[in-house]
C-alpha cells in the first residue's frame, strides 16, 4: 500500500478535527499544487480555527476563485459570503460589504439557476440587529432560514436561527428566543453544523443566556462548549470566549480565584486568535478585582476591556461609586442605559438603582426598580427576579418602609441561596441588617451584619467589607478601641471565661466568625492573648 500523501493526511486530519495537522497536510499539498477548491476551503477553516486569521482569509479567497474557475457558483457564493461574515464579526464593515456585494453580483449574474441565496440576507439582519430594530431583524433572519432549509444548508440554518433567536430576545420574547436557540444547539451538538458556525452559535447562545439571566441554561451550554473545545485541543478560535464564560460563572458562584484564572486564560487565548473573547475576558477580570477591593487593577482591566470597543458597564460605574465619585457613576450608568436595547438595559438597571440611591435620588431609583420589576413579570428567570426583589428592597429602605424592605430582602436572599450566588445573598443580608436597625431591632441587625461580613470575608470581598465598616462605624457611638457592637459582645464573653465554641453557640455564629472577631479585637487593641483581652474588658467596664 502506498504511503499516504500530504493531501491524504490533511484531509484525514480535517475530518478528525485535528486542525493543526490539517493545516500542515493541506498546506503542503497546496504547495504541491494538488488541492481542489474544497481542500482550500477546508484549509481556510482549519487555519482560522488555530488562530491564523489572515492565512485563512487568503486561502478562502483562493477557494472562492477556484470555485469560479470550476464554474461552481454556489461554492463561490458560499466562500464570498463567509468572508463577508468573518470581516463583519471582526468589525471590518468595509471589507465585509465588498465580499457581500461580490456574492450578490454572482447570484444576480446567474439567475434563475441560482435564486436569492440566504447568506446574502445575513448582513441586512445583522445591521438591523445592531441598530436595535429587532422586528426587521427577525423578519430578515426568518427569510434567511427559509432559504437555508430549502437549500438544505445546515450552516446557514444555524446562523439564521441564531440571529432570529437573538432578535426575539431583543424584542422581549425571551422563552421563544431561547427555545429557538436550543433547537439550533441540538443541530450543533449532533455534528450537523461545520466548525466555524458551530462556534458562533455556541458563543451566541451563551451571550443570550446572560441577557436572559438564565443561569441553568448557561451552565448546560457552557459545559457543552467546554466539551466541544476539549475535543479540538489545538483549536484557538472560540476558546477565549469559552474561558471568559467560565470566568463569569465562577464569579457568580463565589469561586473568585478560579474566575480570575479563567479570565487570564481567556485573555491569553483571545490574544492568540479569538478576539471576540477579549472584551469579556478583561471585563470579568476587572469584576473580580473590583469586588476584591483592588481598585487600581480593576481600573486597568476595565480600560483594556474598553479598548475592544465595548463599554465595561456596569462594572466601571460601580467602581466609580465605590471610590466616592457618585455623580460621575450616575452619568456613566445613565448614558450606558440609554444607548442599549431592552435586553442589555435589564443588565444595567440594578446598578442604576444602586447608584441613584447613593446619590439620594429615591424617586429616580424607584422608577428604575419599577421598570426592572415590569421587565421581570413576563420572564421565568429566577435570577432576574432575585435582582428585581433586591432592588425593590433597597428602594423601600430608601423610602423609609423598613418592614417591607426586610421582607423583600429576605425573599431575594432566599432566591440567591437557591441559585448558589453567595455575594448577592450577602448583600441582601446587609439590606436586612439596615432594615432591622431602622426598626430598632439592634440584635437582629447585628446578626444579619455578622452573617454578611462572614460571607464577604469567605469570598475575599474587600470592597464590600470596607463599605460595610465605613457605613456601620459612622452610625455607632464610639466604643473603647474602636470596637464594634458585636466585638464588644465577643470580648464580654471572653472575659467571662467562655471558649470560642461556647461564644459561637451563645451568639448563633460559626466558630470561624468568632475567630475573625477575636482576631479583629486583638488587632484593634494591640493585644496578643485572651488574658490581656479580659483585663482590658474589666478596665473599661465591658465585663459582666
What does this molecule look like?
This protein is an all-alpha fold and 544 residues long. It has 29 helices and no strands. Among the domains are: 248-312, Alpha Horseshoe (Serine Threonine Protein Phosphatase 5, Tetratricopeptide repeat), CATH 1.25.40; 380-475, Serine Threonine Protein Phosphatase 5, Tetratricopeptide repeat (Alpha Horseshoe), CATH 1.25.40; 480-544, Arc Repressor Mutant, subunit A. α9 runs antiparallel to α10 and α26 packs across α28. The protein starts with 5 loop residues before the first helix and ends in a 5-residue tail after the last helix.
SSE topology sketch:
Layout: H1 6-15, H2 19-31, H3 37-49, H4 53-69, H5 73-89, H6 93-109, H7 122-130, H8 134-150, H9 154-170, H10 174-189, H11 195-212, H12 215-230, H13 239-252, H14 256-273, H15 278-292, H16 295-306, H17 315-322, H18 326-339, H19 342-358, H20 362-377, H21 382-399, H22 402-419, H23 422-438, H24 442-459, H25 462-474, H26 485-495, H27 500-507, H28 511-525, H29 530-539
Structural class: mainly alpha
CATH fold naming of one domain: Serine Threonine Protein Phosphatase 5, Tetratricopeptide repeat
Strand percentage lies at under 5%
- Computed CA radius of gyration, to the nearest angstrom: 29 Å
| Rounded average pLDDT | 88
| CATH class assignment of one domain | Mainly Alpha
Cα-to-Cα separation, first versus last residue: 95 Å
Q: Which bin fits the share of residues in helices? A: over 70%
Overall 3D shape:
elongated
Low-confidence stretches: none
Summarize the structure.
The chain is mainly α and 544 residues long. The chain has 29 helices and no strands. The model has no long low-confidence stretch (mean pLDDT 88).
Amino acid at each position: 500500500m502506498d504511503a499516504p500523501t500530504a493531501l491524504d493526511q490533511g484531509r484525514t486530519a480535517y475530518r478528525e478535527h485535528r486542525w493543526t495537522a490539517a493545516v500542515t497536510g493541506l498546506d503542503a499539498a497546496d504547495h504541491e499544487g494538488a488541492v481542489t477548491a474544497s481542500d482550500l476551503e477546508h484549509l481556510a477553516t482549519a487555519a482560522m480555527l488555530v488562530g491564523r486569521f489572515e492565512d485563512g482569509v487568503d486561502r478562502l479567497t483562493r477557494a472562492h476563485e477556484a470555485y469560479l474557475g470550476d464554474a461552481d457558483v454556489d461554492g463561490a457564493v458560499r466562500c464570498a459570503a463567509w468572508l463577508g461574515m468573518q470581516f463583519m464579526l471582526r468589525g471590518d464593515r468595509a471589507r465585509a460589504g465588498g465580499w457581500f456585494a461580490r456574492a450578490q453580483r454572482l447570484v444576480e449574474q446567474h439567475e434563475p439557476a441560482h435564486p436569492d441565496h440566504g447568506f446574502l440576507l445575513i448582513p441586512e439582519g445583522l445591521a438591523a440587529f445592531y441598530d436595535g430594530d429587532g422586528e426587521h431583524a427577525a423578519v430578515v433572519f426568518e427569510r434567511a432560514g427559509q432559504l437555508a432549509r430549502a437549500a438544505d444548508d445546515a450552516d446557514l440554518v444555524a446562523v439564521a436561527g441564531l440571529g432570529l433567536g437573538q432578535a426575539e430576545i431583543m424584542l422581549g420574547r425571551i422563552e421563544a428566543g431561547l427555545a429557538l436557540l436550543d433547537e439550533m444547539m441540538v443541530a450543533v451538538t449532533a455534528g450537523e453544523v461545520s466548525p466555524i458556525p458551530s462556534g458562533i452559535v455556541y458563543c451566541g447562545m451563551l451571550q443570550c443566556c446572560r441577557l436572559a439571566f438564565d443561569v441553568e441554561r448557561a451552565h448546560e451550554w457552557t459545559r457543552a462548549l467546554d466539551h466541544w473545545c476539549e475535543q479540538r485541543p489545538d483549536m484557538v478560535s472560540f476558546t477565549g470566549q469559552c474561558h471568559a464564560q467560565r470566568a463569569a460563572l465562577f464569579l457568580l458562584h463565589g469561586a473568585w480565584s478560579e474566575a480570575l484564572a479563567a479570565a487570564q486564560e481567556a485573555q491569553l487565548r483571545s490574544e492568540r486568535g479569538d478576539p471576540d473573547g477579549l472584551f469579556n475576558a478583561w471585563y470579568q477580570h476587572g469584576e473580580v478585582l473590583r469586588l476584591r477591593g483592588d481598585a487600581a487593577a480593576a481600573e486597568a482591566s476595565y480600560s483594556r476591556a474598553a479598548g475592544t470597543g465595548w463599554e465595561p458597564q456596569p462594572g466601571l460605574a460601580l467602581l466609580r461609586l465605590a471610590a466616592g465619585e457618585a455623580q460621575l457613576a450616575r452619568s456613566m450608568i445613565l448614558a450606558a442605559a440609554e444607548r442599549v436595547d431592552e435586553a442589555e438595559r435589564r443588565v444595567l438597571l440594578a446598578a442604576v438603582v444602586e447608584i441613584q440611591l447613593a446619590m439620594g435620588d429615591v424617586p429616580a431609583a424607584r422608577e428604575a426598580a419599577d421598570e426592572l420589576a415590569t421587565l421581570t413579570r413576563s420572564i421565568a428567570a429566577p435570577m432576574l427576579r432575585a435582582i428585581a426583589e433586591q432592588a425593590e428592597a433597597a428602594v423601600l429602605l430608601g423610602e423609609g418602609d423598613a418592614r417591607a424592605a426586610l421582607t423583600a430582602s429576605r425573599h431575594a436572599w432566599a432566591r440567591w441561596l437557591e441559585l448558589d450566588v453567595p455575594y448577592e445573598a450577602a448583600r441582601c443580608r446587609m439590606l436586612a441588617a439596615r432594615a432591622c436597625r431602622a426598626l430598632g431591632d439592634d440584635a437582629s441587625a447585628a446578626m444579619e451584619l455578622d452573617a454578611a461580613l462572614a460571607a464577604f470575608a469567605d469570598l475575599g470581598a474587600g470592597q464590600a467589607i470596607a463599605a460595610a465598616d465605613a457605613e456601620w462605624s459612622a452610625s455607632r457611638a464610639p466604643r473603647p478601641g474602636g470596637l464594634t457592637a458585636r466585638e464588644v459582645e465577643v470580648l464580654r464573653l471572653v472575659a467571662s471565661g467562655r471558649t470560642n465554641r461556647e461564644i459561637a453557640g451563645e451568639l448563633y455564629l460559626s466558630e470561624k466568625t468568632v475567630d475573625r472577631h477575636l482576631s479583629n479585637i486583638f488587632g484593634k487593641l494591640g493585644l496578643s492573648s485572651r488574658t490581656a483581652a479580659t483585663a482590658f474588658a474589666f478596665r473599661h467596664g465591658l465585663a459582666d
